[in-house]
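Weekly modeling sync, notes
Attendees: S.R. (lead), two postdocs, one rotation student

Agenda item 3: backlog of single-chain predictions. S.R. asked that every request posted to the team notebook include the full sequence so nobody has to chase files. The rotation student volunteered to paste the first one in as an example of the format we agreed on. Action items at the bottom.

Example entry:
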Amino acid sequence: IFCKIVAGEVPCFKLFEDADTLAFMDINPVHDGHCLIIPKAHYPTVFDIAPEAFAAAARTAIRLAKAVNDAVKPDGLNLVQSNGKGAAQSVGHFHLHVVPRQMDDGLLVNWDLTPGDRGHIAEVAERIRAFL
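Predicted structure, as returned to the notebook:
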């Protein structure tokens, strides 16, 4: 659907557009101001996106986050980017959500801080470093 939006085949509530990115309102908003930033080129996930396209999306996200913050005056704001079904990615096109937040709004993006086992953390870190 996002490629069709970029192509102008499906309408959107466009907020911003430049050569590389498009920002538009989410039509299933969790709060006023919830919007999306996408690269115009198709990349299914963060595992596929070119670094330059990610950087362009990040630049647009900063601009949009500031505008949303000024426009709707939330208590806070999340930038959310999901990859794959297990992370609840609903559209197979890389996108960033700008999600304005209100205190105690009940959204399940937050989690309680629980100290992890430092030995296990070190083991996982070593496994990750092996792939860098």
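Discussion: group reviewed the output briefly. The chain has three helices and five strands.
Action items: rotation student to repeat for the remaining queue; S.R. to check formatting next week.
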